[in-house]
Structures are given as C-alpha cells and as structure tokens.
C-alpha cells in the first residue's frame, strides 16, 4: 500500500510501538528463564500474564473423547478479498488479487490505515430482508473450518497477542489429541448472530456427524463467551435422539448466557475488544453494524426492568427502553437488529446434554455506565463495577444454573476466583478440569 511520507512516518512509529508491546514483554520471561511459568498474551489486553506451565503424559486415543472448540466474539480469523467501488481514503487499497487476513492483522490497526480496515469490516443492514451483507465490494470468508489453526491464534502470524485457544490446544495435543482429527475447530463470522449462521450450523452438524462416524465416539463441545449461546441455539434446534447419539457433553467457558453491560458501551462509545492499539471510537463504526453485538445486549431475564444500567443527561437506560437507547445513539438499524435477535436464546431453554459450566469470578466488571458528565457519546463513561469476569457480568455467567432443574442431564458448575474472561482459556485449573471430563469413561 502506497502512503504519503507523513503517514508513513506515523505508521512506522505505531508499528514499532506494537512490536515493542507485543514482542519485548513476551521475551522477557524467556530471557530470564523463569522456571515453571510461561508468558501468554491474550485478546483481553496487550500485556503478559504468567501462569504455571502444564504438562501431561500422553494417553491413548481410546481414552480421549473427541473435542470441538467453538470460539467467542473476535475468536475466529477472517479473510477478505476486495474490489471496491470507492474507498474512505485515497491510500486505502481498492482491489486485492486474492484473499488477505482481515481479522486479526495488527499492521492494519495503525493510525489512518485503521480507517481502511474499519470500512472493510463493517456490515450493511437491510431492514426488508432483515439480514446483513458485507461492505460493497468486500467478500469475507472464515478460514480453517474443522482445524484448530484459526481459533488457536486470531492473527495467522501467531504473534502472542493473538493467542486464543492456543494454550488449551497445546496441552491437549501433548495429551494425545490430533489437530483436525480428535480436536476440531468451529470458527465462524463473529459479526453475525445465529439467525444469519445457517451455513455455519450446517457445516457444524456435518462435522460432528462425520467425526462420530469416523471415530465412533461422542463429542465434547467446548465453547467460550458468545460461542456458548451460539452453541445453545444449535442444540435447541436438534432432536433429542440426535443429541443423545452424537454429543457427550457441553463445556462452557465464561458463557455470556444473558448478555453483558459491556455491549451497551460498545454501541455507545465503542469497545476495542481488549486490543489497546485499536481506538474504541474507530471500531465503534463497525460494532454498531454487528448483529452479534445486539445479540449480547443484557436481557430482562437477568436485569429487571427497573434497574438502570446506563445514564445520560437525557435517558436512564434499562432493559425495557432499548428503542429509546438506539434512538439516542442514532442507530435505528441497531434497534432493528436487536429485534431480530432478541428472542433467539432469550428463554435460555436447556440444551438437553450434560453441561459443565465454568467461569471466572472476582474481577471488576462493568455494571453501570454514567455518561452524564462527559461529552456524549464520544467520550468514555464513568464506570461502576460489579462482580463478573471482567467482561461478562456474574449474573449472566451463572445463567446455566437454571438448567439444573429444567433437564434430566446433569449440570455441573464451578467458578474460578480471579480468573478473567480470556485467561480462563489457559488457566491450569480449568485445563485440569477439562482433562478430567474428556478422559472420563
């Protein structure tokens, strides 16, 4: 991409900053040779967190239940091919010869260039068809379905900052799992909600059936965050005899069963998905077009109608006045998308399979957003925190407990103190729990 000299300088400086953040911190632990710890950087922020290394003796494949990993919001790689009628800046690429990495490619997040990326990522809503489409001239696909590659790291260059299921897969492979065979990945276009994921669900079902036929064993589904209600929607739409035949159990990690207050902030003043070099207001332009974000709005099954979760000088927002909220942020399409997705898993019907519900706790989590003393909506709010895992509120994380009295299959529950929304994917105690489940007869 050609850039004018002043933009080149800004991009070089920003790229160097990203390099220093991503690589230098990662190598510190290696240089110091800290024993029995390893450094990992996740999407929850560009900083290292140490956790004990886990190593298990390999087991025979006969002792292992096959697994499928379903990621959450931002947990799948996306690729794009473009032939655009116009671009937002003269230096933005207008046509590409082939598909290129769209999410996540850190080089696209530098100042000015990020505007090109934002325009490629956005969706366009049609309130007649009630569906979304890509930005004009942009074709987006999800690579690596069936393998774990595109859910281990969301940046194909596999820089540590983009680690997702990588630590879990690493341990499982050491135990005897085989990528693309006994441990599978189910990436999807995380911009969309279940009502627009028919192709994914067809692939997902076929993959489960093929694996069962090949291996002769029921599968363990492991979901994270938004991937859990997305998996629930799938299970709610399968016959019980199909589930009994193919599914061993569901392991939910930080499931956002009833939404999260954080989604309101994303619609209002943006949320950078924990990538600190990504400006919140820039990514807001995309987030406001994503049905998946509307799907994660807090529901009145978990937040009573009279509980204020956001305040401005003009409106106290509750789960009962989302129409006024979307009018306030001037996003009428957002309200229509919310109407489309609000009932997909609203009743939280039990999945009809054995459940292991795991989540972190004891981390300050957005509970109330106060925009009354800032320039609305472009400045960040004063935040009142409550219990949760740093991203999803505790009341939503515990939604799975309702199934203990609603289905005959067992529902096991465990929380992990001071384990946040992303580190649950690599926490030693969580991985040890998963190991116990997948090796049980």
In helices, the fraction of residues equals 25-40%
Tell me about the largest β-sheet: 6 strands, parallel
Number of domains: 1
Assigned CATH class: Alpha Beta
GO biological process, one term: lipid metabolic process
GO molecular function: O-acyltransferase activity
Protein name: Group XV phospholipase A2
InterPro entries: AB_hydrolase_fold, LACT/PDAT_acylTrfase
Task: List the main descriptive attributes of the protein structure presented here.
globular; about 450 residues; Rossmann fold; LACT/PDAT_acylTrfase; AB_hydrolase_fold; alpha/beta; disordered N terminus; six-stranded parallel β-sheet; Group XV phospholipase A2; single chain
Provide structural commentary:
InterPro entries: AB_hydrolase_fold, LACT/PDAT_acylTrfase. This is Group XV phospholipase A2. It is built from 14 helices and 17 strands. The protein has 441 residues and is an alpha/beta fold. It has one domain: Rossmann fold (3-Layer(aba) Sandwich), CATH 3.40.50.1820. The strands form five sheets. The protein has a six-stranded parallel beta sheet. A four-stranded mixed beta sheet has the order 13-12-15-16. The protein is globular. The model is unreliable at 1-50 (pLDDT under 50).
SSE blueprint and pairings:
Layout: H1 5-32, E1 37-40, E2 49-52, E3 67-70, E4 78-82, E5 100-103, H2 113-121, E6 123-126, E7 131-134, E8 138-141, H3 149-152, H4 166-175, E9 183-185, H5 198-215, E10 219-224, H6 227-236, H7 240-246, E11 247-253, H8 262-269, H9 280-287, H10 291-295, E12 310-311, E13 316-317, H11 322-328, H12 332-341, E14 355-361, E15 365-370, E16 382-386, H13 394-397, E17 411-417, H14 428-439
Parallel strand pairs: 3-9, 3-10, 10-11, 11-14, 12-15, 14-17
Antiparallel strand pairs: 1-2, 4-5, 4-8, 6-7, 12-13, 15-16
Helix pairs in contact: 2-9, 8-9, 11-12
Organism: Tetranychus urticae
InterPro entries: AB_hydrolase_fold, LACT/PDAT_acylTrfase
GO biological process, one term: lipid metabolic process
